[in-house]
Amino acid sequence: MSSLRKDWDTYFMDIAYMVSTRSRCPRRHVGTVLVQGKKLLGTAYNGAPMGTPDCSEDGCLIVEELVPSSTDNGGMVKKQRCIRTIHAEQNLLLFTDRVDREGSVVYVTDEPCWTCANMLANSGIVEIVYHRDYPKDHEKVTTLMKQRGIRFKKIEPYTAPADTQVQDGA
């Protein structure tokens, strides 16, 4: 009996998706893993700070902001975002050591937002591999990664493991 062995990107992205199932965010589950030389060094997911009620207990803490429209007609569109949650990438940086991050790869289920990209750019990592797009910040994040010399790639084609998806409520 022969079975196909998963490539490393698929293997670690699968783990990131499994980590995301720990999130209690009703809007989106995000998971991330830190890898150095094929060795898993840390995992994290999005959620409220430890010891505080999360969105499933106290509801999302929503703020509204106007952002430029992505349509050809321009203008502004109102977007809502939850500020109760610490992003998965931020938690990963909080709970791993700088020495472990030097030369490492971050696998994250979702393309990092601008704030997380800035933090990752100064973290010592050399590559970010993501699956789901975050169009709002894609161009500026891609430019930042190019400026910093950090490899930045979307894993394609890829299908997340069964029962790890949450509909995007944002």
Describe the structure.
This protein is α/β, with parallel strands linked by helices. Helices cover 28% and strands 25% of the residues. The protein has 6 helices and 7 strands. The strands form 2 sheets. The protein has a 5-stranded mixed β-sheet with strand order 2-1-5-6-7, sandwiched between helices. A hairpin with a 2-residue loop joins strand 1 (31-36) and strand 2 (39-45). Helix 5 (114-121) runs parallel beside helix 6 (138-148). The radius of gyration is 16 Å and the shape is globular. Residues 7-152 form the CMP/dCMP-type deaminase domain. Pfam families: dCMP_cyt_deam_1. Keywords: Hydrolase, Metal-binding, Zinc. This is CMP deaminase.
Question: On the 0-100 scale, what is the average pLDDT?
Answer: 90
Span of the ends, CA to CA? 44 Å
Which structural category do the helix and sheet elements fall into?
Answer: alpha/beta
Unreliable stretches covering 5 or more consecutive residues:
none
Order of helices and strands: HEEHEEHHEHEHE
Spatial extent as radius of gyration: 16 Å
Q: Count every beta strand, where a strand is a DSSP E run of 2 or more residues.
A: 7
Beta-strand content bin: 25-35%
Sheet with most strands: 5 strands, mixed
The number of helices is 6
- Which of globular, elongated, flat, extended, rod-shaped describes the shape? globular
What share of the residues lie within helices? 25-40%
Strand order of the largest sheet: 2-1-5-6-7
InterPro entries: APOBEC/CMP_deaminase_Zn-bd, CMP_dCMP_dom, Cytidine_deaminase-like, dCMP_deaminase, dCMP_deaminase-rel, Deoxycytidylate_deaminase_dom
Cofactor: Zn(2+)
Keywords: Hydrolase, Metal-binding, Zinc
Organism: Cohnella kolymensis
